[in-house]
Amino acid sequence: MLRIRLNELGKGNDNGLIQADVWKWDGIGWNEYITQQDEDFIRTEEELFVTIPAEAGLYRVDYSNKPFEAPYLLPEWVGDDLRTTGLHPAPFNLKEGTLWGYINDEGRVQIEPRYEYAEDFQKNGLAVVQRKNSSGLIDSTGRERVKPIYSFIAPFSEERAVVSDAKGYTFIDEKGKEVTSARYDYLNSLHEGRALFSKQNTTGGQSLYGYVDAQGKEVLPAIYVDANDFMNGVALVKIKEGEYALIDPAGNILHTYNHPFVGSPGEGLLAYQATENGKYGYLNTDGSVAIQPQFTSALPFSEGRAVVNTAENYGNAYGLIDKQGKMIIPAKYYEVLQLGEGRVAIGTIGTPVFPSQPYRGSRYVIADAETGAVLSNHTLLGVNNYQEGLASVFDAKDTYFIDRSGKKAAQPPVIPGTGTLTLSGRLIRADVDQRTSYYDRQGKQVWRQNGVIPLRPPYSVVEKKYKPNRDYLVYYLVVEGIASAEVSREVNDKLRKLSLAEDVGSGGVSQDFSYNGDFSVSFFRKNLLVLELTGYRFPFGAAHGMPTKIYPHINLRSGRFYKLGDLFKPGSRYVEKLSKIVGKQIENDPQYSYVFPDTYKGITSDQPFFVDNEALYLYFAPYEIAPYSAGFPTFRIPYAEIMGLISTEGEFWQSFH
């Protein structure tokens, strides 16, 4: 990175506030914003400067003396959907890891952080929380209404919530009682008194679908090849290949459609194909043709309009039509997104952000869904649906609201970074650059996720952020309180390197991947600090990215980073003995049935590991001995099982005993 000093610009400025932004020419316009860093290792108190990447290109620095401005204040917000609880889920960074609790409208903690994850309170006053990787329900006092015994709990719909466990899917009521003991291979939420379920075909082959009522009674048996939720008193089902039907809640067939494909009705029109693998058009519910087949894809109608594609060979040429098939927005864009409230986002104006890599995303502008007129030419990199006349968006620099004019709304806040703003009762929740904060409707921050984690005096962990471009974001840590300045510097330099929080350029086409990194405290006792450093690298255009996970074990007195072998007595043959223990777990424990046959050959002397107060944990990377979906296969070995191997007088063991 190169510095441009701005010290001279501050002279004569009474309040000393300089606004400076750096932009890079991308061949079309000044569209690439260069994020400025606030890290200690590239910024000092005495200097005022901006940074630009040390690579060829055209850069522009915009600067101005900004006077302090009074914030824009909206009148006190009054809405119909204020939650009766007035509680908001919030993550806290603690020495026990990141735990979730609940704050009130003033930002004060109402329910202590003790959950692995916590969701919003629903209208019935219940919220889904997770503990030990299982889901339960609490009320606004924090009392458990349903113990965390389920692998999944869906939001309540019509006084029922779908839950699942190892046995399958079923319903619970708002008291947490299972409505029926029956379990299904799949069960969807209630819609108009009916819930879609599936069962394996007893004669073999694919699953079949039916419907249950709110009591879990099968009111329509599983006889359909495919089916959809009820909406406006009807549901589309597939009876057999080439035959679809519209049914009522009693299962009566209202209309039959004999076509290779028919989609769910959207405002009285159903997308369909007249021939196998042919073009798409739309049918009326009575089966008559409303719009002749002419599209390579056709989405359901909403607000009187539908998104269609005309590109061949799986290309992108999207547009917007009305119910007569007239093009409101010509079919020539990489994306068209319906945002609600009469607005759409047109994706990629002219060319993609990176023409040779269109899958890296679009530039969006907001248009009127009725006329197709572009309302604002300011390009956005992310858009969300409208809610109460506002839509959360982000551009190359900030996350903020736009109003129905497509322009930046008067409603604060405006937050540097990439993310979303959500109306949350009397507050606004901001999830920006993977951190959470809350603001009131006047834009005042009432709570933010803490960046300092106290351990015990004099030790603490301080969060730092490294974001050289919008495709690279790392949160790394600095350990404070280490007595020796030299040891402190060595420890923190190594942690920054392990976190990959350095040596990345400005982005652009030369950076062909995105990367997110984060950390948490895994274990702390006596002098031993165990950290979890996670990362996710996604090569653009790939099917998926690759996660990483490492656990540095640090003695905060000596600054030493421990290896697995440091835990054991010299000559103890710990590799051989631990390998046998892990092998037996794979062989005898059903939870490891996902391990590829004959792939486990034992552990290595530097096997990835972590410790806590009770056990040693050994783990493997994705694909190493199991499928990608298995994540990091981890094996718990209690100390009691291997105490004869452990060097209890050794520095590693003594660092936390």
Structural class: mainly beta
Tell me which oligomeric state these chains represent: single chain
pLDDT under 50 segments (min length 5)? 38-46, 67-84
C-alpha Rg, in Å? Answer: 29 Å
The backbone outline, from C-alpha atoms, is: globular
Strands, count: 53
Estimated share of beta-strand residues: 35-45%
Helix content: under 10%
Largest sheet: 7 strands, mixed
What is the CA–CA distance across the termini? 45 Å
**Number of helices, counting only DSSP H or I runs of 4 residues or more:** 4
Give the overall average pLDDT: 90
Q: How would you summarize what this structure contains?
A:
The protein has 657 residues and is mainly β. It starts with a strand and ends with a helix.
Commentary on this structure:
With 657 residues, the protein is mostly beta strands. It has 4 helices and 53 strands. Strands 44, 45, 46, 47, 48, 49 and 50 form a 7-stranded mixed β-sheet that branches. Strand 13 (152-153) and strand 14 form a beta hairpin. The two termini are 45 Å apart. The relative contact order is 0.07. Mean pLDDT is 90; it is low at 38-46 and 67-84.
Describe this protein with a few key phrases.
single chain, 657 residues, 6% helix, four-stranded antiparallel beta sheet, mainly beta, seven-stranded mixed beta sheet, 53 strands
Mind sketching the topology for me?
Layout: E1 2-5, E2 18-25, E3 30-34, E4 49-52, E5 59-65, E6 88-94, E7 97-103, E8 109-115, E9 117-118, E10 127-131, E11 134-138, E12 144-150, E13 152-153, E14 161-165, E15 168-172, E16 186-187, E17 195-199, E18 208-212, E19 218-224, E20 226-227, E21 235-240, E22 243-247, E23 253-257, E24 261-266, E25 269-273, E26 280-284, E27 289-295, E28 297-298, E29 305-309, E30 318-322, E31 327-333, E32 335-340, E33 343-347, E34 364-368, E35 374-380, E36 382-387, E37 390-394, E38 398-402, E39 415-416, E40 419-424, E41 427-432, E42 435-440, E43 445-448, E44 452-456, E45 459-469, E46 472-480, H1 485-498, E47 513-525, E48 528-539, E49 546-550, E50 553-555, H2 574-588, E51 609-611, E52 615-619, E53 634-638, H3 639-642, H4 651-654
Parallel strand pairs: 46-47
Antiparallel strand pairs: 1-4, 2-3, 2-5, 6-7, 7-8, 9-10, 10-11, 11-12, 13-14, 14-15, 16-17, 17-18, 18-19, 20-21, 21-22, 22-23, 24-25, 25-26, 26-27, 28-29, 29-30, 30-31, 32-33, 33-34, 34-35, 36-37, 37-38, 38-39, 40-41, 41-42, 42-43, 44-45, 45-46, 47-48, 48-49, 48-50, 51-52, 52-53
